Amino acid sequence: MNKTTSIIIPTFNEHDNIKTLVQRLSKALSGYEYEILFVDDNSSDGTAELAESLQTEYPIKVIVRRDKRGLASAVVDALSHVSGNNIIVMDADLQHPPEVVPNLIKAVEQGADIGVASRYIEGGGCQGWSFTRRMISRGAIFLAHLLLPATRKVNDPMSGFFIFKKNVVKDTHLNPAGFKILLEILMIGKFQKVIETPFTFVIREKGESKLNTRQQINYLKHIYSLMQRTGEFLRFIKFILVGGSGVLVNYGLYWILTRFAGFTPLDDASSGGIISGNLAMAISIETSIITNFLLNNFFTFADRNTGGIFRFFGRLLNFNLICLIGGLIQIGIANLLTITLGIYDLIAIPIAIIIATLWNYLLNNWWTWRH
Ligand code: GDD
Ligand code: MN
């Protein structure tokens, strides 16, 4: 078996960092078989030329792309040039300490298909980050965990420092936008075991960060594109269709109960309609919650319908609770919009329904059918 570790390092104007990087890598990896692949996007500061000049001393390949830009796509392009079975991705600017690389290799030796150098586990961190930057980073991770359930087993799916076996991406079509190549691999790749190893993302001493607002927008686009490609968007549509069927069950059952089963219609106050009519409504609501639950369990979330009968009833209970709160949210928002803000009710209520539906979907996706 080929034991070479291929280290892919995308560069864009990193001239002042790569010599130190290569020296520290070579020191940290003495005794290991490895190769370094620089993927440079036509830097203007001589990064590629410097990398080529280091080839005499170190096992380095240099790939120069003339008309493309982008960190994640640079990694994808490099994949066709690696000769190792284990592939590491890291930054060139020394924010990813080369001394952590042996720990990543260890993760694979311990049976992991993917090893992540993680800032958000015990022992990891970010040096010199402001409160705001921390919050943005945490928010981005939360969004990924929320919308892309397969990332939930990784505490730091935004890390740009990781290892994976070549098989993980074999026969897959990677199409990442922006910076988050690990996110793409976690969602599209094929793997069983992930191990995270802590590291501290240190301050950049030389050169400049290329992370800008555009990259943050790219991140949102990337999440959306992954939702589409992995069926998570379709799941949401299914949930809405099931919700629509619930409205029919709810209304239809009320009609049957009050017209054919002896319950008094709600508007028939003289003959006890308040109690009997409301009872018919309550039965209809709960029945529609149960039919919605069954359809979601065996259709929308069929892939996560795990566990025995206890889990099944546990989920039914969760679903009931979340939908109940969803109903209260709808009432609260509808009241706020109409009574407090004076918005026309036929506009306010659809807005309230949309927000309550989002609540129901996200919370049930997160909790009831947790991954
Ligand atoms: N080839 C290529 N093309 N390389 C690029 C490009 C590009 O368009 N843009 C950036 N790079 C390289 C940089 O030269 C550096 O080696 C690495 O990608 C990371 O870029 P930085 O600009 O230093 O990004 P950062 O430090 O803000 O972001 C890093 O931290 C994030 C976590 O906060 C990256 O590691 C991200 O992947 C990581 O998610
Ligand atoms: Mn950086």
Q: Strands of the biggest beta sheet: in what spatial order?
A: 3-2-1-4-7-5-8
Binned strand content = 5-15%
Assigned CATH superfamily of the largest domain: Spore Coat Polysaccharide Biosynthesis Protein SpsA, Chain A
Q: Give the total of domains.
A: 2
- What composes the largest sheet? 7 strands, mixed
Task: Give the overall silhouette.
Answer: elongated
Radius of gyration: 27 Å
Low-confidence segments, ≥5 residues, pLDDT <50?
Answer: none
Tell me the span between the first and last alpha carbons. Answer: 34 Å
What molecules are bound to this protein? guanosine-5'-diphosphate-alpha-D-mannose, manganese (II) ion
By helix and strand content, what is the structural category? Answer: alpha/beta
Describe the structure.
With 371 residues, this protein is α/β, with parallel strands linked by helices. It has 2 domains: 5-230, Spore Coat Polysaccharide Biosynthesis Protein SpsA, Chain A (Alpha-Beta Complex); 232-368, no CATH class. The protein is 52% helix and 11% strand. The chain has 11 helices and 9 strands. It has helices at residues 15-28, 47-53, 71-79, 101-109, 131-147, 181-188, 213-229, 232-260, 273-300, 309-340, 345-368; strands spanning 5-11, 34-40, 60-64, 86-89, 114-118, 125-126, 162-165, 194-198, 200-201. Helix 1 packs parallel to helix 2 (47-53), helix 9 (273-300) crosses helix 10 (309-340) and helix 10 packs antiparallel against helix 11 (345-368). The longest helix has 32 residues, at 309-340. The chain is elongated and about 95 Å long. The mean pLDDT is 94. It binds guanosine-5'-diphosphate-alpha-D-mannose (GDD) and manganese (II) ion. Guanosine-5'-diphosphate-alpha-D-mannose is lined by residues 10-12, 14, 39-41, 69-71, 74, 91-93, 95, 137, 158, 160, 179, 209-211.
